[in-house]
Design brief:
The protein is α/β, with parallel strands linked by helices and 246 residues long. It has one domain: Vaccinia Virus protein VP39 (Rossmann fold, 3-Layer(aba) Sandwich). It has a seven-stranded mixed beta sheet.
């Protein structure tokens, strides 16, 4: 995982990216009939948007993130959380030491084959993996326009390719495991222009303000907001998808 993909974006990420529902952990447990406890490693934790819901009894959480500025923002409101500067490909955890591996909105940034091998090495016998994403609801016109804009500017920036996340790609990568796929919830954001631009600029596809195409990128999203807002807000809807690998 690149340690610079979100550099200088940690504030935007924290302030404008969608928040998981407070029920996210119980939703996962109910969906997959599991109990999240023991030694839990969350890879690519970012600013702790999922981590903050993990702390609790019978859990010790390792919040792992290569970007120190983002890791600094993980809330430390519970002694069961340990922050770790590290990557999914080379975690430096001991063999067979982790009960559950989680990764939320991050696995597509990892090198998949190396990460799978590392996960296999550090998981205890019968250890389990949960991968989570929230995907824009492509039934929304604005979601389709946002995606096209991300891809267009991403190509201009010559950014690294990301693994495409589908049932097929995850199932193929983890072929020797059981893989269960479920939608476990929905997130909605009502965004005014400032918050909409903040969200768009928090993306890993977004140029930095110092890039020559930054003003064009921002202007395109001002245009999209103007086309799609109602009473000064756009509604962005996301489907929370999770894979249980065991």
């Amino acid at each position: 995982m690149s340690n610079s993909l979100f550099s200088s974006k940690e504030l935007l990420y924290q302030d404008f990216r969608p928040e998981y529902p407070s029920s996210i952990i119980s939703d996962l447990e109910s969906a997959f009939n599991i109990k999240l406890n023991g030694e839990i490693a969350e890879f690519g934790c970012g600013t702790g948007k999922l981590t903050k819901y993990l702390s609790g009894q019978n859990r010790h959480i390792y919040a792992i993130e290569p970007d120190i500025e983002m890791l600094d923002r993980v809330p430390m409101n519970n002694v069961s959380i340990t922050k770790v500067i590290g990557t999914a490909e080379n975690s430096r955890f001991a063999n067979s030491s982790i009960d559950f591996i989680l990764s939320a909105q991050a696995f597509h940034h990892f090198e998949p084959v190396a990460t799978k091998g590392e996960f296999k090495r550090i998981l205890k016998e019968n250890g389990q993996i949960i991968l989570i994403w929230y995907f824009s609801d492509m039934n929304q016109i604005i979601a389709r326009e946002i995606r096209k804009t991300f891809y267009r500017f991403g190509r201009l920036l010559d950014q690294p390719k990301r693994m495409k996340i589908t049932e097929h790609t995850i199932g193929t990568l983890f072929l020797e495991y059981n893989v269960c796929f479920k939608q476990i919830g929905v997130i909605e954001q009502a965004l005014n222009l400032n918050n909409f631009l903040g969200s768009m600029c928090s993306s890993s596809y977004a140029p930095e303000p110092s890039d020559s195409i930054f003003d064009d990128y921002k202007e395109e999203f001002v245009r999209l907001f103007g086309l799609h807002h109602k009473n000064g807000e756009v509604i962005c809807r996301f489907n929370i998808i999770a894979y249980h690998i065991y």
